[in-house]
Amino acid sequence: MPKLLLAALGVALLAVLSLFVGATDLSPAALFSSGPESEAMRVMLASRIPRTAAVLLSGMAMGVSGMIMQMLVRNRFVEPGTAGTVESASLGILVVTLLAPGIDLFVKMLVAALFALSGTALFLAILRRIPLRSVLMVPLVGLMLSGIFESVTTFFAYRYDLLQSLNAWIVGDFSGVLRGRYELLWFALALTGAAYLAADRFTVAGMGRDFTTGLGLNYRRVVSFGLIIVSMVTAAVVVTVGTIPFLGLIVPNLVSMTVGDNVRRAVPWVAVVGAGFVLVCDLIGRTVRYPYEIPVGTVVGVVGSALFLYLLLRKDSSLG
Amino acid sequence: MARFRKPSPRQVLLLLALACLAVIAAFMTVGAKGSWGFILSFRGAKIAVMVVVAYSIAVSTVLFQTVTNNRILTPAIMGFDSLYVLIQSGMVFLLGSSGIVSVDPRLRFAAEIAVMVAFSVLLYGSLFAGGRRSLHLLILAGIVFGIFFHSLSTFLQRLIDPAEFAFLQDRFFASFNLVRPDLLVTAVVIVAVVTLVAWRIMHSFDVLALGRDRAINLGVDHRRMVTIILMLVAILVSVSTALVGPITFFGLLVANLAYLVMPSGKHRHILPAAILLAIICLVGGQMILERVFGFDGNLRIVIEFLGGITFIALLLRGTAR
Asked: Which of A37, A222, A314, B161 has the fewest Cβ atoms surrounding its Cβ within 10 A?
């Protein structure tokens, strides 16, 4: 436990640092010497604190979502981005934007979650029909299915001249996060907490239908519960900040390499490491081309795919 | 009523060639209004680009599948296209926008191809030669390499001054909407040279297709052949990506169509069939989208959609051994 506390403390320190990085110059001294109504205080409350909170929350939520999926499908390479979840959520957002542009963000998220759920269910249906269950077939099919969803989204975006704005939504980016625009992520955190409480059931469900039923659990219900949580969390993150590629894949894998596979122990670690990882990537994106920003999705895309390659091509990986 | 016989490879090729000519003629003439001289030259340039791209993609895919000895891996799926775009972005990033404009585009193209060949032989050579890896691992690693290269080039492009980025994107990163005809002549010359080299070693392809061990038994210097073919593939991918940008699944579609319609498995039949099919699909698809649906530049999206479905179907059928 003390190690986990240390890690959490490190992330907290980074978060404080992140409060003072940005285009407007803010120093701690200026903040405390000025009154509560000053410009510095306003920037802090309306932009910096919400942004940092959004980074931490999405990192936690996406990391834990990836972990739930990996437990349910019993495959190390599954996460919302390699199971069609993210892309079908994006398609849902596009559909809502076309049909009801001014609709409430929460409704938007619910529609996106419905789409995400259907997309993921389709993915699982395809998986059941696969003749040879190679470990790597699962992410392969998922990536291809994501590509198909993506091409449908692009097609309609192109048709209705939304391609520019679509790209702006899809790439994960925290620069637009302001107070009043990110609160859905607290909802995602609540869902993540529910997932933590049900973690052991997901492990059991991963053992298969018969095993689960033998222990007196309703298999269908557990799997549906897990998928609903993952879809809601993904939809909330995609609606608020956009996609953060491979996060749900890398963080649980790195944690399981160091901490092991005990779910109860691993979930807090995944939450802390996920939050820290996104925070570091966001800080890189904010500082490397100061005062311009590089979207966090791009930074995570580089680091994430590099780590994914490392996981695949490791010498001792038992993948053949 | 004559008894239906299986057509010979020659008959199939003849039919494909006729269909190809018909599609090109239709593209040149359908819906033409106004001055013929302008239309023919304008559409002629488009056709020329599409033919070069179709040729490059078809040949590179079939050769790549011969080397890797399966029908589901293609250079584009393995991330070759993204590697080329990354090299382009890297050049623009290193030289800066003022520097890059002053360099002759042909010279830059040649430099890009040289870097591309070096990198792809190093990277993919080690991926295919390094012990026996499972096919699924290769495909997945290839896809993730592609994503990695793509993210890295986006990152580099973001590092370039944002104010100049739009200008650079139009100048240096091609897509179906922003075809770059300035490279067309260079591209034709390069493709012709590649074709000559491939023609000289055509006899080895059929032996290679039997698989690594048999090919070595039959006296093929396997490692050398793989290196040569990887070089040719890298050059062809550079040409097609430089002209119209990356298209992930087009090669997979035409190569598998060629295996389907061709009654023979010999490369002197398969290669021309794949080339003709690629031209028919590209020109025909572009024509249908432009004239019938009034879209422009949407062909890539349609190809990605169909290609993705084909890929999943091939995976489910277990073609990927």
From this structure: A37
State the virtual CA torsion across B244, B248, B251, B253 in degrees, nearest 10: -120
3-state secondary structure of A243: strand
**Nearest chain B Cα distance for residue A187, angstroms:** 30
For residues B115 and B195, is the Cβ–Cβ distance under 8 A? no
Report the run of H or E that residue A160 belongs to, with start and end: none
Instruction: Please return the burial class of A122, using the count of CB atoms within 10 Å of its CB with bins 0-12, 13-18 and 19+.
Output: middle
* Among A279, A252, A276, residue whose Cα is nearest residue A265: A252
Residue A206 backbone dihedrals phi, psi, to 5 degrees: -65, -25
Q: Which amino acid belongs to residue B210?
A: L
Specify the pTM.
0.87
For B130-217, where are the alpha helices, taking DSSP H only? 135-159, 162-172, 184-200, 202-208, 212-217
B111 touches A: beta carbon within 8 Å? no
- Decide if pLDDT at B321 tops 70: no
Q: What residues contact residue A244 under an 8 Å CB cut-off, 6+ apart?
A: A58, A59, A62, A172, A237, A278, A296, A297, A300
- Least CB–CB distance from A155: residue in B134, B141, B301: B301
Residue range B208-226, pLDDT digits in tens = 888 878 888 888 888 888 8
Closest chain A residue to the Cα of B148, Cα to Cα: A305
Report the distance separating Cα A61 and Cα A67, nearest Å. Answer: 10
Residue A32, both tokens: 């405390």
Whole-number pLDDT of residue A318: 55
Smallest CA-to-CA distance from B252 within B205, B307, B320 is with B307
Q: Is B27 exposed, middle or buried (0-12, 13-18, 19+ CB in 10 A)?
A: buried
Q: Which positions in chain B touch A292 (Cβ < 8 Å)?
A: 162
The DSSP line for B273-321 is HHHHHHHHHHHHHHHIIIIIS---S-HHHHHHHHHHHHHHHHHHHT---
Amino acid in position A275: A
Distance from CA of B36 to the nearest CA of A (A): 31
pLDDT in tens, B52-96: 999 999 999 999 998 888 888 899 988 999 999 999 888 888 877
Distance CA B154, CA A301 (A): 9
What is the secondary structure of A255-269 as a DSSP string?
Answer: HHHHT-S-HHHHHHH
- B315 contact residues in A (CB cutoff 8 A): 130, 137, 140-141, 144
The nearest CA of chain A is from the CA of B133 a distance in Å of 5
Extract the tokens encoding A9: 């403390």
| Contacts with A223 (C-beta within 8 Å, 6 or more apart), sequence order | A72, A205
How many CB atoms neighbour CB B21 within 10 A? 13
Angle, helices A105-128 vs A137-159, to 10°: value is: 140
Calculate the CA A37 to chain-centre distance.
35
Residue B149's Cβ-side half-sphere holds a number of Cα atoms within 13 Å equal to 26
Indicate the SS3 state at residue A171. Answer: strand
CB atoms within 10 A of CB A20: 14
Collect all residues of chain A within an 8 Å Cβ-Cβ radius of residue B318.
131-132
Distance of alpha carbon A98 from alpha carbon A95, whole angstroms: 5
Mutate to test the interface with A, among B137, B247, B300 (most CBs of A within 10 A): B137
Report the C-alpha gap between B216 and B238 in whole angstroms. 30
CB A269, CB B139: distance < 8 Å? no
Instruction: Please tell me what DSSP assigns to residue A27.
Output: -
